[in-house]
Sequence to fold (304 residues):
Amino acid sequence: MQFEKTPGWLDWHAAPSKPRFRLPAGAVDAHCHVFGPGAEFPYAPERKYTPCDAGKAELFALRDQLGFARNVIVQATCHGADNRAMVDALIHSGGKARGVATVRRSITDQELQDLHAAGVRGVRFNFVKRLVDFTPRDELLEIAARIAPLGWHVVIYFEAADLPELWDFFTALPTPVVVDHMGRPDVAKPVDGPEFELFVKFMRDNPNVWSKVSCPERLSLTGPKALDGEQNAYRDVVPFARRIVETFPERVLWGTDWPHPNLKDHMPDDGLLVDFIPHIAPTAELQKKLLVDNPMRLYWPEEC
Ligand SMILES: O=C(O)/C=C(\CC(=O)C(=O)O)C(=O)O
Fold:
């Protein structure tokens, strides 16, 4: 099948630099995606965007270029609940990738078992309105109850303004809960203002809540962009991510978000994104927790 990219689509950076920051041994890129290729794994009819192809071979090449040991591949909305591209990548990773799926309530127990055998360890519930249609809360709670006995967790993606309305639902989830991109704070607001304080309280009051301190390229309003060797990219995001890392060092994860769907302004150099990490996790101890110990506990607990 032939697909035409959404107008204005930015393709992933073709030649990411080698990071200056040396990742600790065993580092996990805990948030990335695969897209298609569409000819082999068609994009879902209900998708809100059509990306460029970004397959497993390119993802694994990026992993090696940046110095990561493993990936966590998160199902992207352009594939809906058809997890075949993600599962195919897991199967061909030689045990170096685990996954987060999107499932509907119609999934059978056998299908869940098959996803587990392939390396899936979580489901993603997406609340970002430009990406998905509404799913009833009772369907999501039913899914959460079914995946809990498998030892899986729930990944949630939402925007900061929606946290108050979603709070009761999130705190009713029976599993570990992993928030994508710090709940997308508006970084024009103060890091100790009411909006981000609510997110900090969400994590403080609920010890089962984790956060990915990822996506500065998506959250930043003033840059500078991670391009052309810039070693101090996205300064406006640093206080937010650093606060979460330093306050909850045992419950943070980091990922590239490759191939960076839906960026409108620029496509970052992934090597320079890795160079962002020591700004938000300034000590070797914090870096090891963020990049190795925490993701291993969540995705490869049998090795811990
Ligand atoms: O890649 C991300 O994490 C963020 C996305 C895309 C996404 O989540 C999806 O399509 O599933 C975004 O903000 O557009």
